[in-house]
């Protein structure tokens, strides 16, 4: 899993029929300059920190035949606390 910050939404007028309802977001992975496109079923907004599952785990979350998704928002970070002596 990754923590990332939402930087924007991807607008698309057409998409494959296997895609469930939701939004595609552009996020920046915490601690890097790497951008990912992630599927968002939760309704996240720009600037929010999110938890992202990637790979087959992301697609397997959906019932039935897995859609063509390899990065999925699975949570919104309300607060992060790190134990003393550990870094983010």
Protein model, in words:
With 88 residues, the protein is mainly beta. The protein has a domain at 1-12 and 21-54: Beta Barrel (OB fold (Dihydrolipoamide Acetyltransferase, E2P)). The chain is 6% helix and 39% strand. It contains one helix and five strands. The protein has one helix at residues 56-60, and strands spanning 2-10, 23-29, 35-40, 49-54, 71-76. A five-stranded antiparallel beta sheet has the order 3-2-1-4-5. A hairpin with a 5-residue loop joins strand 2 (23-29) and strand 3 (35-40). The longest helix has 5 residues, at 56-60. The chain is globular and about 45 Å long. The chain starts with a strand and ends in a 12-residue tail after the last strand. 17% of the residues are buried. The mean pLDDT is 89.
């Amino acid at each position: 899993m990754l923590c990332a910050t939402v930087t924007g939404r991807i607008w698309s007028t057409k998409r494959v029929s296997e895609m469930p309802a939701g939004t595609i977001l552009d996020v920046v992975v915490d601690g890097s300059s790497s951008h990912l496109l992630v599927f968002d079923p939760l309704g996240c907004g720009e600037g929010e920190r999110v938890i992202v599952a990637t790979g087959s785990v992301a697609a397997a979350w959906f019932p039935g035949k897995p859609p063509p998704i390899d990065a999925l928002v699975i949570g919104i970070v309300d607060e992060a606390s790190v134990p003393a002596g550990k870094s983010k």
